Amino acid sequence: MQLYKAAKELNTTIAELVARLETRGIKKRKHSFENLTEEEYKIAQELFARPEAKPAAPKSQPLRSEVPQLQRTPEPKVETTLKEKPEAPAPAAAKPTAPTAVPQAQVSHAAAAQVVAPAPPKPQAEVKTAVLEKPAPPPLPTRPLVPRPPVVTILGHVDHGKTTLLDYIRKTHVAASEAGGITQSIGAYQVEYKNKKITFIDTPGHKAFANMRARGAQVTDIAVLVVAADDGIMEQTREAISHVRVAKVPIIVAINKIDKPTASVQRVKEQLAREGLTPEDWGGETITVPISALTGQGVDDLLEMILLVAELQELKADPQALPRGVVIESSLDAARGPVATVIVQDGTLRERDIIVCHTAYGRIRALLDDRGRRVGEAGPGSAVQVLGLSEVPGAGERFEVMTNLVEAKRLVESRLEELRRKRFEKTRRTIQDILQQQAQAKTRVLQIILKADSAGCLEAARNELKNITVESVQLEFLHEGVGNVNESDVLLASTAKDAVIIGFRAGIDDKAAKLADQEGVPIRLYDVIYQLTDDVKRALQGLVAPQIREAKIGEAEVRRIFKIPNVGTVAGCYVRDGYVLREARVRVKRNDTVIFDGALASLKHLDKDEKKIEKDKECGIKIAGFEKIEEGDILEFYTREVVKGF
Fold this sequence. Notes:
six-stranded mixed beta sheet; eight-stranded antiparallel beta sheet; globular; Rossmann fold
């Protein structure tokens, strides 16, 4: 019988069942779907059938029913405990001494005094019993942690049914109000199932919002990966798997659209196994639940699995602590100003609290739930919108609550100053930097994100890299994919912190290149396989040669052609982006095809030689060794620089 079914039948929790079985020497189960043998189940029945299994209940009841006896007998012991004198039992016979014991108990334990206050005769016995258990004055008691709702992130490929699944769970229709039926920003929603709350984060599935998906994976307790049974695993599904693995959270796979005639649950499970997510019913550790988000088939089973996994994680928080959490999404509303959607991880967030979120701060004007209703407070695991910040915070930023608005402003100003300073200092790290930071470890790990222009090239590069062996250094593939290096790859590498991106016959998107510079993520691009393997091997051995990196600086359009005797062809150009440098190199593009790559012979404005021409200005350009330039050609200017290390 499966573990979670046994817990249900015995009317207990999975954690309690596992703990009881461990006392009998039965190995600890890690997953709710693991099976108990018949013998183990019989032992469990015996354990939970015993009336003495919970001895605490009978103890507490006689305590109050026998108060008159306790008032007479424990008094000598109380005096012994408090005064630590052997002659203390003598006054016990005199009843007037009983009232004096109460102030002493109040001094030794503040919590006991609260029990004494309502009814003086009875609580005296309880106070004395408490003192007997703790004779020395203890430190202030720590606040007990309470269970909190799990935060669940919905991930997957575009149009695989993530928002439709949440629609069914919430019994509302979100997708109808969103452009194209595709989620345009992260939404956080809280639902209740079997009197237990679950907080869902709906991360966008479209590639354009890869950075928000990466932020969502970092705050979640459980990731639900939605895979369409008719499409199977797609490129963005693999990206989502990589993000969740880096976040190190449990994965539940919801195999959606099983109501379609072309659906194949078996094929999806085979694909999952190839991605390293072997289903539990195949002997693996990944929970899979076939569902139809349209009809609701299997959705209750999915919620049941979410609660079971959350129960095994024992998620708890302190609702009385200073509130802290994470921003899931933010925007600037014309009427309400900066609006941030946050997940509260600890404490209770209330209106009028002073909140600081990186470089944004302010006093909370209002808290709104996922249906737009105003709420007074939000406890651990809740998702709310916050109004009242000074500016729009970034998605993924952490927030905290402070007690003084002036101190909050000072903190933000110091952070802004630190950002200004770091902006000029931050550079891309090298593999040597990464490995030196791991120098204390016996075995160092280099995490690789591998991209290629085709599946064949990807397989070839992966196989070659796997054959590289360097003592005390291991290669770990975080993600592999076909296509150019994009923002999602850079975000994944920056999240992993010790990762490098390698492209084989693949390019890099402009936005990804800028983000890599900001985050300090190393990227290497290769066209020849042996150069790739040689460089990685040399890098692991600390012997890599410097690489030449190109940086685009500007772009100009050829508007007129001048034929000048003894000079040649000069192009009259308009600089439409960036700037032009005399020492820069130039690519001539015609119909988006590069027809020449070389250097400038001259750069002039009117009749004057110039070293630099800024954007929106006209200039005359002579290209060394190229005379076949035409009107309408696009000139792309770039510089080359040496990048040391890998």
